[in-house]
Specification:
This protein has helices at about 10-15, 35-40, 45-60, 85-100, 115-120, 130-135, 165, 175-180, 200-210, 230-240, 260-275, 285-290, 300, 305-320; strands at about 75, 105-110, 145, 150-155, 190-195, 215-220, 245-255. With about 325 residues, it is α/β, with parallel strands linked by helices. The protein has one domain (about 45-60, about 70-320): P-loop containing nucleotide triphosphate hydrolases (Rossmann fold). The protein has a seven-stranded mixed beta sheet, sandwiched between helices. Strand 3 (about 145) and strand 4 form a beta hairpin. The protein binds adenosine-5'-triphosphate (ATP) and magnesium ion.
């Protein structure tokens, strides 16, 4: 499977309207001609609308079950676009679910190890990580780390994982490594959240094969849906070959800037096409959310009364559907 790494373009209109740029807003090099063309008409949502229509027409997006699946639930947080809020969502949704009393395991499946540092775990002090689990059959329970939040646990990633995409190629049952590994700890947790890398390579395939659900963070920007077709293609391939029950259950709109009309239009458009799988709670763009990882804390610990903390708490209620905690 090809490793189509795509970086996230961002609309200039949203940046200019945003007073204090956060790290997420740093201008990026290599913006496409297509994007530049779009800048001339930030209010025209034609591109976004036709992308949404194409996605809905082309991909088998099954009806959502009326009820939430039973616990334990395994969610892959995936979008091969970089910087859309996968890790921020894995860490903060995980923390907010843990606050509700669920036992949560965040699995860092990204060689960048951002979920690991974001949860205050120093990769340099680790003997084992998800790399050893996937490549060397180390039991996953041997590398589960506690965090500073009760009920919230982490399987960390180190930079070793960068080699895994290549090392996995000749490996036996290379797509099913993570699925097999988590089997032994599933009964200890209510939620497993897998933070995927910004690619569609073998690591992401492992996450999609291990999960029952995919949660897709989508940034509230003009090119929000760019590349989503590739992700949905991959999900369909995994469903056909490895994991027939995989369901895109959750779309989370991230980095919403209430000061721009564009953000609101993007949310409306995505909702119109993807319906109930789009969470009602939208994550605002706030500097506090981008500061929390450098303190190794989820937002509910770093700034419990902030807008970001409130949004992720609401999201946790929505995603859990109020299911009774299974393990204590
Ligand atoms: N709601 C938000 N408000 C402000 N900044 C945010 C928000 N969500 C994420 N960020 C910041 O945006 C950057 C990208 O977010 P994050 O790391 O969660 O994305 P990602 O999809 O995991 O990226 P990658 O594809 O590189 O793994 C980070 O610096 C993060 O702190
Ligand atoms: Mg990330």
């Amino acid at each position: 499977m090809s490793d189509a790494m795509t970086n996230s373009p961002r609309p200039r209109a949203a940046l200019e309207a945003d007073g204090a740029p956060s790290p997420a807003e740093a201008p990026e090099a290599g913006r496409s001609a297509n994007e530049s063309a779009g800048l001339a008409e930030p209010d025209g949502l034609d591109h976004l609308r036709s992308a949404a229509e194409d996605l809905v027409a082309t991909h088998r997006i099954a009806a959502l079950p009326g009820e939430k699946p039973p616990l334990p639930r395994v969610l892959a947080i995936a979008n091969q676009k970089g910087g859309v809020g996968k890790t921020t969502t894995a860490v903060n949704l995980g923390a907010a679910l843990a606050e509700l009393g669920y036992r949560v395991l965040v699995v860092d499946l990204d060689p960048q190890g951002n979920a690991t540092t974001g949860l205050g775990v120093n990769a340099r002090n680790l003997d084992t990580s998800i790399y050893d689990v996937i490549l060397h059959d180390v039991p996953i329970e041997d590398c589960i780390e506690p965090t500073n939040l009760r009920n919230l646990f982490l399987v960390p990633a180190t930079i070793d994982l960068a080699g895994a995409e290549i090392e996995l190629v000749p490996a036996f049952s290379r797509e099913m490594r993570l699925r097999r590994a988590i089997g032994t700890v599933l009964s200890d947790f209510d939620f497993l959240l897998i933070d995927c890398p910004p690619s569609l390579g073998l690591l992401t395939v492992n996450a999609l094969a291990a999960a029952q659900e995919v949660a897709v963070p989508i940034q509230c920007e003009y090119y929000a849906l760019e590349g989503l077709g590739q992700l949905l293609n991959n999900i369909e391939r995994v469903r056909a070959n490895l994991n027939p029950d995989l369901n895109v259950s959750t779309i989370i709109m991230t980095m919403y800037d209430a000061r721009t009309r564009l953000a609101e239009q993007v949310v409306d458009e995505v909702r119109r096409h993807f319906g109930d799988r789009v969470c009602r709670s939208v994550v605002p763009r706030t500097v506090r959310l981008s500061e929390a990882p450098s303190f190794g804390q989820p937002i509910v610990v770093f700034d419990p009364s902030s807008r970001g903390a409130t949004a992720y708490r609401e999201l946790a209620k929505e995603v859990s559907g109020g299911a009774p905690q299974r393990v204590g």
